[in-house]
Amino acid sequence: MLRLSKLTDYATVILSFMARDKTQLHAAMEIASATGIALPTVSKILKLLVNANLLISTRGAKGGYALARAPEKISIAAVISVLEGPIALTECSISHKGCEQAAGCDIRDNWSLINQTIHNALEALTLADMIKPVQSQNPAWKQEILIPIASLYR
Fold first, then answer.
1. Which of 42, 43, 130, 149 could form a disulfide with 32 if both were Cys (CB 3.0 to 4.6 A apart)?
2. What is the pLDDT of residues 31-64, one digit of tens each?
3. How do strand 55-58 and strand 64-67 relate by DSSP bridges?
4. What is the mean pLDDT of residues 1-25?
């Protein structure tokens, strides 16, 4: 099962909260209160997002955090990469070091293709998409996809 860490999930929640009111500066305490995420965790995530240039911070009594770009310009791939590192399903997709099977592996390039496809899908999804209401009338991600059985045996 492919699973993201809680920090990545929380970062997406925090950024989505901020994207709903992109013109306002948000204090860490306000974000923690609004999202229900513990203040130390919010502070840690905010620091990572500032270091990655996804957020800007302003010091002082009227300071806080704001999106560095419009929600339409911040991809979910960028958020995941900040907290998880490069998007890859297998370790050998990132580095060939540490894989005992690398020399005889005939499918390494195929994993790269799969990783690139997933990366492209996450790159196409933005914070703006995350704050849109989900359409209940048969969204594309719920549509049935038919795969001919013959294609599985090629």
1. 42
2. 999 999 999 999 999 999 999 999 999 998 888 9
3. antiparallel
4. 89
Both structure tokens of 23: 């013109």
3-state secondary structure 85-97: CCCCCCHHHCCCC
Global confidence as pTM: 0.78
Give the whole-angstrom CA distance, residue 103 versus residue 50: 40
Rounded CA-CA distance 53/48 in Å is 9
Asked if residues 46 and 57 have their Cβ atoms less than 8 Å apart, the reply is yes
Q: How far apart are the first and last CA of the chain?
A: 25
Number of residues written out for the chain: 154
Tell me which CATH code domain 6-130 carries.
1.10.10.10
The crossing angle, in degrees rounded to 10, of helices 28-35 and 39-51 is 120
Please state, in angstroms and rounded to a whole number, the distance separating the CA atoms of residues 46 and 31: 10
Which long-range contacts link 3-11 to residues 24+ away (Cβ below 8 Å)? Answer: 4/80, 4/83, 4/84, 5/83, 5/84, 7/41, 7/44, 7/45, 7/83, 8/79, 8/80, 8/83, 8/84, 10/35, 10/37, 10/41, 10/42, 10/45, 11/45, 11/48, 11/49, 11/79, 11/82, 11/83
3-state DSSP call for residue 53? coil
Give residue limits of the domains in the chain. 6-130
